[in-house]
Write a structure and sequence with these properties.
Blueprint: H1 3-6, E1 14-18, E2 27-29, E3 39-43, H2 55-61, E4 65-69, E5 80-84, H3 87-98, E6 107-112, H4 117-130, E7 135-138, E8 142-145, E9 148-151, H5 159-171, E10 176-180, H6 183-187, E11 198-201, H7 209-212, H8 215-227, E12 234-238, E13 254-259, E14 266-274, E15 277-282, E16 285-289, H9 294-309, H10 314-321, E17 332-335, E18 341-345, H11 350-364, E19 370-374, H12 385-394, E20 398-401, H13 411-419, H14 424-428, E21 430-432, H15 436-446, E22 452-456, E23 463-466, E24 469-472, H16 475-483
Parallel strand pairs: 2-3, 3-4, 4-5, 6-10, 6-11, 7-10, 11-12, 12-13, 13-14, 18-22, 19-20, 19-22, 20-21
Antiparallel strand pairs: 1-5, 7-8, 8-9, 14-15, 15-16, 17-18, 23-24
């Protein structure tokens, strides 16, 4: 691609250009190891590394154009140097141009919030496939281009990977694309250059404070997504969350709301709850859905609202909604022959745990005990560890604190951080078992007919990360092994 065409969208962000502008670029890269002959290399000033350190390596690999922020050595006369105001922002725009602006050829909807992103985005993808459309998905669990599955490595991929996926969707005839938009991705401008047709806000609770430091900064990152939506897009927000209307304050997009508690454009009422599903009413129409818990009613309401805002028939949307199934690792129910129920869920924040445990109690209505198995990830927000243990103990009859993904921390140290949140009464009903498999086995041994075991934190993950190495570990597989 001609350099002038590739950089057309960043012209207002360019500080200076040195070298030959009239050249063709063979590829783009932000990783110097992936740079090749006649490549354009973008030296991103990231959170953990300064891309300018890798400019010599990129040139050695054959790169002929260097895009950078700040100051760097520009003495090589064979190289074209482009200084920009913001290297992260430029990356998204250049990546979009390289793949011929795929987001403009799709109806692209982003879902952001602390909890519910994966479920909402995935169910929107499922919805539009059921309605007969070509559709793509970018999520924490898996990426899809129509029915072709691709593994996911990040909630929101880097800009080059992201635009490459969107281009695949266009090539395969997709009309719609749904994606999770993480706070990291917004802050790091991974979604720069994308044209969204809609944005959905689920909720905001404590998470990622190891990265954002304060809830205010976390909120600001989420809000930035809505601030940047265009006027022809829709912004759909949960008004039952105290930050729901904050998201709409400065957006140019068309504003829409959903709620279970108050008045809204899309309103739901819960009629009856059981472990196989929930009877609900949406905008005056009754239906049965195959999901459990109020938190899932919010997710389904967001899916319905977005579907209608994407100009689909409301009756068709309700029919499709009643046929949708839960997402992998999200309130997955496993029944035992002994008469107890195990639930595997990704809940890894205090609020998510409260939601899932609350949903279990809503159905049980005091007719069985709740046994919770939960841990916290290593090298992540430590402040939520005692809170997660506290909420789990408060809402459980028996708590087993165990390992999650310890990463580079000692598992026992993480457990100790969690136990610090428990008072003497809570400690009496708490066991500490470092090995996650033993913890799950113990829960299955303790369970009696009518009880519910919640195994929280890992959900869809099929690995456990210890000292930088991922070992196969699947909560659902382990539960099924001991239930049998």
């Amino acid at each position: 691609m001609e350099l002038i065409k590739l950089t057309a969208d960043i012209q207002n962000d360019i500080v200076s250009i040195k070298g030959n502008k009239d050249i063709n670029v063979a590829g783009i890269a932000t990783d110097s190891r992936k740079a090749g002959t006649n490549f354009l290399f973008i030296a991103i000033q990231g959170v953990q590394a300064d891309g300018r350190e890798f400019i010599p390596k990129a040139i050695e690999q054959g790169a002929k154009v260097i895009v950078y922020e700040g100051e760097t050595d520009t003495s090589d006369s064979d190289i074209t140097y482009i200084q920009v105001k913001d290297s992260a922002d430029a990356t998204g725009k250049i990546a979009s141009a390289w793949f011929d602006h795929p987001s403009t050829k799709l109806k692209l909807v982003g879902v952001t919030g602390t909890n519910g992103k994966t479920t909402t985005a995935t169910l929107l993808y499922d919805m539009f496939r059921k309605l007969g459309y070509g559709a793509g998905l970018l999520s924490t669990v898996c990426n899809f281009v129509n029915d072709t599955r691709f593994p996911a490595t990040h909630t929101t991929p880097d800009p080059i990977t992201l635009n490459e996926f969107l281009a695949k969707m266009v090539d395969e005839g997709c009309e719609y694309a749904f994606m999770e938009v993480s706070s990291h991705a917004i802050h790091q401008k991974r979604i720069s250059g994308l044209e969204f047709d809609g944005g959905i806000f689920t909720n905001l609770t404590q998470d990622h404070l190891d990265y954002h430091q304060t809830m205010s900064e976390y909120l600001k990152a989420k809000k930035a997504f809505f601030d940047n939506l265009p006027s022809n897009a829709f912004a759909l927000t949960n008004t039952d969350d105290k930050n729901g209307l904050v998201m709409l304050q400065n957006t140019k997009a068309k504003k829409h709301t959903y709620s279970v508690k108050g008045l809204a454009d899309f309103k739901a009422r819960i009629i009856e709850k059981h472990f196989d599903g929930t009877a609900i009413e949406i905008n005056g129409r009754e239906l049965e859905v195959q999901f459990v818990g109020v938190f899932n009613v919010y997710n389904l309401l967001a899916v319905y609202g977005a579907t209608v805002l994407l100009d689909q028939d409301s009756n068709d949307a309700l029919v499709a909604l009643s046929t949708l199934h839960s997402v992998a690792g999200r309130f997955q129910t496993i029944r035992s022959k002994e008469g107890f129920t195990a639930i595997v869920d990704y809940a890894h924040t205090p609020d998510a745990l409260v939601n899932v445990l609350g949903a279990i109690h809503e159905v049980l209505e005091g007719s069985g005990r709740v046994i919770t198995v939960v841990g916290c990830g290593g090298n992540r927000d430590k402040t939520k560890r005692p809170i997660m243990a506290q909420e789990s103990a408060r809402l459980s009859d028996q708590l087993i604190v165990t390992s999650d993904n310890p990463r580079f921390e000692e598992p026992q140290a993480i457990i100790d951080d969690m136990l610090a949140g428990l008072d003497p009464v809570m400690m009496k009903k708490t066991l500490s078992i470092v090995e996650r498999e033993q913890a799950i086995k113990t829960a299955c041994t303790l369970a009696q007919p009518g009880d519910v075991i919640l195994i929280a934190g890992k959900g869809h993950e099929d690995y456990q990360e210890v000292k930088g190495v991922k070992h196969h570990f699947d909560d659902k597989e382990v539960v099924e092994k001991y239930i049998q």
